[in-house]
Amino acid sequence: MATANKTQPTPEDVDAFISRVDDRKRADAVELISLLSAATGEPAVMWGSSIIGFGARHYRYASGHEGDTPLIGFSPRATALTLYLSLNFDDYTDTLARLGKHKIGKGCLYVKRLSDVDVTALTELITDSVAAARNMID
Predict the structure, then answer these.
(1) CATH code at 91?
(2) Confidence (pTM)
């Protein structure tokens, strides 16, 4: 039996969440909201307790597991800003080289602060991720 995805949109106010974010990350979170909203044309929505997502798409795996996820999102975590992207990072070595200080994980880009990265390179990754996510919509 399929279980519901733990991370769902919530009615929590994004501004209220941001107001509780550490001062050092708050300005970066506000800037990311602007960048991601511009890239998607969608408003910021809380997904779960700590992810700010934009838009939504439905996914279905061959295993039968399915659910909904934001087109793109981020979380201002204590150790880094975590961006949830729909990219194969191996295809973006040149852009990542221009990006600046970052780490990557499966579907995640981690940056300590936006001042550490090239915003033009970041915007390219965001734009391509949104396009890729939209191409995955059922």
Answers:
(1) 3.90.1150
(2) 0.91
